[in-house]
Amino acid sequence: MKQKICILGLGYIGLPTAAMFATHGHEIIGVDVNEEVVHALNQGKIIIEEPYLDIMVQAAVTSENLTAATEPCQADVFIIAVPTPMEADKTANMKYVESATRSIVPYLEKGNIVILESTSPPGTVEELLVPILAESGLCIGEDVLVAHSPERVLPGKILMELVENNRIVGGINQRSCEAVRDLYRTFVKGEIFLTDAKTAEMCKLMENTYRDVNIALANELAKICEAMNISAWEVIELANKHPRVHLHQPGPGVGGHCLAIDPWFIIEKQPQLAQMIALGRQINDSMPRHVLERCKEILEPVEERKKVVVFGVTYKPDIDDMRESPIMEFIHLLEQEKDIDVVVVDPHVTHMPYLEKDMWKAVGNSHLIVLGVHHQVFAQIDFEHMKQEMKNPAILDTRDFWDRVTLEKLGFQYFLLGEKKEGSRL
Ligand code: SAJ
């Protein structure tokens, strides 16, 4: 049955979800407070980078199933997909969820469904949404069905994962669960599991916390291996041959708007109990400084003013997203070093301080190249040319991406995060 769905928040999740429902026959009104987003969308255009999303949005707008506005309107379903950023004190800022919820109250009618997709501290649906929705005078749970259904998609693969991933629906009662499950069935091919709202909220946070804590374990291993003359990369590769072990990869830290933030929403609720989660955050946040210390050690013999070139600043490879990027923190630390000049190379980024679009100009007369993020384009660099341009041909690879043997043959000094020795003992 064709439903009228009002989606609040046209970002990385709201927009793909809107396009998906629209191309599956529903009538979608996308709402965003940013007029630029609304204007672009009504012309079939998008202002974020995500593979194939532009094509899908264009098709949805052309079919007239997707339109955008700055205010909500009457609808059958309301989906809230606004950001829940983190405050300086590491607690969730719920003001966008709160104002989006308030904005739909005047339009609520008997038979409506309200879904929260935004990642939120456990208890948000019951403690924040339900009381606001009740101001409509309707009976929440009877007249209006409410659920949390967290998104779990990976940036760069959003459209595929929206369809294929399993989904959790946490309703305030069984009727809410079932109605929301039936709606997502429109396009979800993965399994849909039903639970209560608070459990669904905690599941979402724990998925990212699981990954964050495991990366912290890998980062701790990297530091231990450096101190003990062992290669963390070799340990990980060999330990992962065990059928029940899956060590993650170390790196310069953890970025993005999910892994670096979601664990804090659990800590906020249970600060006394969430000990390992907090320690994981602390270890991952220590990595930019650790990389800086490695740089200083490598540059110690250089007696003049040093030029360090950072390759890749986004929070992960092959995207333009710099949110919470640990490389940005590393650059911030580098710029505080009085005898170091910083230059940045990143083909996915259009503007930021220290960015040099001409790679050869960037590496000219430099003393150290730090690989921050392993964008695919960095696999095809002419290292022979690079060596000629550099004053001191040294590389610190934080991702085990470049080939030590090739680089050493060319005369580079190659250093790798997670080891301080030359490759394997064999
Ligand atoms: N990273 C490591 N070592 C690893 C894996 C990742 O250092 O072994 C770093 C990356 O470099 C990056 C950060 O972790 O800085 C996060 O990258 P990611 O690819 O792990 O995750 P996100 O933030 O892009 O997407 C995650 C996904 N969650 C999980 O895989 C559990 C995605 O499914 C979620 O939808 C998304 O968070 C979200 O929106 O919550």
Report on this structure:
It is elongated, with a radius of gyration of 24 Å. Helix 4 (95-104) packs parallel to helix 5 (124-134), helix 8 (197-228) packs across helix 11 (275-285) and helix 12 (287-299) crosses helix 13. It has helices at residues 14-23, 35-42, 53-62, 95-104, 124-134, 158-164, 174-184, 197-228, 232-239, 262-269, 275-285, 287-299, 326-335, 359-363, 383-389, 404-409, and strands at 4-8, 27-31, 66-69, 77-80, 113-116, 145-148, 167-171, 192-196, 306-311, 340-345, 368-371, 394-397, 413-416. The strands form 2 sheets. An 8-stranded mixed beta sheet has the order 3-2-1-4-5-6-7-8, sandwiched between helices. It has 16 helices and 13 strands. The chain starts with a strand and ends in a 10-residue tail after the last strand. The chain is α/β, with parallel strands linked by helices and 426 residues long. The chain folds into 3 domains: 4-190, Rossmann fold (3-Layer(aba) Sandwich), CATH 3.40.50.720; 205-284, N-(1-d-carboxylethyl)-l-norvaline Dehydrogenase, domain 2, CATH 1.10.1040; 287-416, NAD(P)-binding Rossmann-like Domain (Rossmann fold). Ligand SAJ binds at residues 151-155, 207-208, 211, 215, 248-249, 251, 254-256, 258-259, 315-316.
The CATH homologous superfamily name of the largest domain equals NAD(P)-binding Rossmann-like Domain
Which blocks of ≥5 consecutive residues have pLDDT under 50?
none
Please work out how many helical segments DSSP would assign.
Answer: 16
Helix and strand string, N-terminal first? EHEHHEEHEHEHEHEHHHHHEHEHEHEHE
| Cα-to-Cα separation, first versus last residue | 65 Å
Largest sheet: 8 strands, mixed
Ligands (ions, cofactors included): ligand SAJ
Query: Looking at CATH, which topology of the largest domain would you report?
Result: Rossmann fold
Radius of gyration: 24 Å
Total count of strands:
13
The assigned structural class equals alpha/beta
Question: How much helicity do the residues have?
Answer: 25-40%
Number of domains: 3
Second rung of CATH, namely the architecture of the largest domain: 3-Layer(aba) Sandwich
Which strand order does the major sheet show? 3-2-1-4-5-6-7-8
Percentage beta strand: 5-15%
Mean pLDDT: 96
Shape: elongated
